[in-house]
Specification:
Radius of gyration: 18 Å
Oligomer: single chain
Mean pLDDT: 88
Structural class: mainly alpha
Order of helices and strands: HHH
Low-confidence stretches: none
Number of helices: 3
Distance between the termini: 49 Å
Number of strands: 0
Shape: elongated
Length: 69
């Protein structure tokens, strides 16, 4: 079996993944999908942290957060 590594534009990724799932001769590594999802969540968190640092979004104190737990 051969392996191919591709770089897909973020806006076309979901479409591409749906497309290749329909081919029975292609195996998608679950590790790759999980890694992609994890990296996306980290990027979203970093973006939220940057916005919070700029004061663009409402935040709450750590004490308030911990009391909620």
């Amino acid at each position: 079996m051969k392996q191919v590594t591709l770089s897909i534009e973020e806006r076309k990724y979901k479409f591409f993944m749906e497309l290749i799932k329909n081919f029975d001769f292609i195996t998608i590594s679950e590790d790759t999908i999980e890694k992609k999802q994890t990296l996306k969540k980290i990027a979203e968190g970093m973006h939220a942290a940057i916005l919070a640092g700029k004061g663009s979004v409402k935040t709450r104190s750590a004490k308030s957060f911990l009391n909620e737990l």
